[in-house]
Amino acid sequence: MQIYKVGGAVRDRLLGKPVTDIDWVVVGATAEEMLAKGFRPVGSDFPVFLHPKSGEEYALARTERKSGRGYGGFTFHASPEVTLEEDLIRRDLTINAMAEDDHGVLTDPYHGQQDLENRLLRHVSPAFAEDPLRVLRIARFAARYAGLGFQVAPDTLELMRQLSESGELEDLTPERSWKEISRALMEDHPQVFIQVLRDCGALKVLLPEVDALFGVPQPAAHHPEIDSGVHTLSVLEQAALHKQPLSVRWACLLHDLGKGLTPQSEWPQHIAHEHKGLKLIKQVNERFKAPRDCQELALLVGQYHTHGHRALELKPSTLAELLQSFDVYRRPQRFEEFITACEMDARGRLGLEERAYPQADYLRGAAIAVRTVAVQPLLEQGFKGPELGEALKRERLKALKVYKEQHSQ
Ligand code: ATP
Ligand code: MG
Fold first, then answer.
1. What is the CATH superfamily name and number for domain 1-112?
2. pTM score, two decimals?
3. Residues whose beta carbon lies within 6 Å of some atom of ligand 1
4. pLDDT > 70? residue 71
């Protein structure tokens, strides 16, 4: 049997990027031989094995054919006769379809190296169109390598458009889609992921609520970029520049969905867009079964981001309600994520990327002020049950009044 490194490991080495996980392909072997060497099968009917020591994936060379719609709609054929070239042709991109033997000799039948040089994400064969997940994968690679100047090849974008129009994206399970979306959002240029999806028509299938933001104007005084979709991309870009976690990036992507519902007669104003957007945010959260922390933060940021921007003008009672809504006493980290999401929203505007955002420290100070109110003295005064809750509320409100006064001096 011959064993080759394939896929991401070969690509990233040639790009001079760190290689994290290595995928291997095994040519000229049977499943029985693999088992005899101590490899562990990944599934009962899939020709992929884990190395007994390293745990890395070793796949028998295989060919694939589409046999129906959806994830199960593939039949594959693995046998010792399948050649390396036959295995590589089933892969998505030419830059992912190179193999390297243990002497470092490259097999590159589909000119992946040339596409690396030309900074092109190009499909290997027309069979690309057989798996709708590839639309998301290619947009994700575009987000990852945008900084190196990579672009999707026009023919590949055309295939992605056909896949998007075929309705097959709807067959993807929430789990497979979320895996790609969440990884893409954590790349260096997540806004490119959304942009590429939009360019091929996939955005209006996967995230029509985000797609609807493009072409919707906002007031130029606060939003020199005008367009709500462009703004959303910039907010996401800021979140990545500031190395924010997934929950914040997800919240940034969804924070303004309500603007897509504003009647044209009200443009460029978006009265109560925060509230109107909530049902859309909920809908998107559920579509992809996003993890709970992402879901919660997106809803809270959607509802309260304008409060964040107006923090210095908020009455102590409104500030108290805001802090209460976030349960800042038990969930301080979530409030911190809200603050940074608001800051990204403020900076994700044309020409305002470097602006100061004093609201952030003001909100942090307010959270400290209420969290410093101690329960013990109230217990000692004999408060209990609902009365204790009321007393605590009063003390916290007092603390916020003092905080606001001190701050305005
Ligand atoms: P990453 O750095 O994200 O791991 P990768 O290219 O190694 O990138 P994997 O998901 O680990 O991506 O897949 C390994 C290889 O398997 C890819 O490089 C590609 O050749 C092939 N591959 C994976 N998923 C698909 C797919 N849906 N369609 C075609 N080829 C695929
Ligand atoms: Mg990999």
1. Beta Polymerase, domain 2 (3.30.460.10)
2. 0.94
3. 7-8, 21, 23, 91-92, 96-97, 131, 133-134, 137
4. no
